Amino acid sequence: MKGARSHRSAVRHAAFSFALCVVHFALCASAGAQASEKIPKIGLLLPYSTGPDARIEAFRQGLRELGYVEGQTIKIEYRWADGKFDKLPDLAADLVHNSVDVIVAGATQASIAAKKSTTTIPIVMIGVSDPVGAGLITSLARPGTNVSGTSSMTAEIVGKQLELLKETIPNVARVAALWNPANPIFQALQVKETENAARALGIRLRFIEARDPNEIDRAFANIAQEGLKAVVVLGDPVFTSHRKRISDLAAKRRLPAIGGTRDHVEAGGLMGYGPSYADMYRRTAYYVDRILKGAKPGDLPVEQPTKFELVISLKTAKQIGLTIPPNVLVRADKVIR
Predict the structure, then answer these.
(1) What pTM value is reported for the model?
(2) Which of 6, 94, 145, 150 is the most core-located residue (most Cβ within 10 A)?
(3) pLDDT tens-digit map of 148-193
(4) Are 226 and 240 in contact (CB under 8 A)?
(5) C-alpha–C-alpha distance, residues 191 and 140, integer Å
(6) What span, in angstroms and rounded, lies between the C-alpha atoms of 230 and 166?
């Protein structure tokens, strides 16, 4: 009997030891799987300044809608150029060095900097006006490179902005166009379209340059000195970053100013007409998701905006002593009172 009990005890001990080994193995396997599970890392390369931004929040919202949780199931590395385009190449190279899985690049210059830094890491561009002309892709339908994303068509809508300005102020003849020569590729497209539209509308344009915040102040002093009666603000990251200053300077000189974004008006500008950049940033999450799931950027068609919005500030109109014609006001998607 004693031998039988000893035998049963040995069997139980062996079984218990085996069970412990199984549990230990399972725990180690689980820990190893978790350690090896890689959280996707997104590099966000932006030409403007850091800070709270509705566009960035729209991108985050798009990721959340697709099931991503920042800091848990996806990581975002932020790089801001503060409107200094010469910083973009180094920032892009830093993202490549950090082995991000996808680079999300805001606007033309950031997208070009990213593409020059890597031919292998997928790049999702946001709101590039002419990605084919900029050499980023071969065609909208089939990009054929490591780049895809959205096109803003911003250059083409500058003419519409001038039309709206002319409808609002029928007797306007001399208009300033605020542009940034430090952003040559994108600005050249807008300058050409602006000149064509001005000729068709009988408007005499005077291009006033500004490369940084200090030059913005000087630009408005020149506008006042030359007696120009209105301002069209061409799309540019520097102007986006300093839209409040631009709007304040325009209002101080009682100048009607139109830009290409809702942000321009919410900062105090008179009018804004252009694509919804918040929509484009939200849509960027779709491209990121597709790429992380194995799609190649070169096979993902570039999307153009389908929604354009006209935003008007009656508050600013009153401040500068201007009445918005009913035929213009009725077309506004949003009116700030």
Answers:
(1) 0.81
(2) 150
(3) 999 987 767 888 999 999 999 999 999 999 999 887 776 777 888 8
(4) no
(5) 23
(6) 10
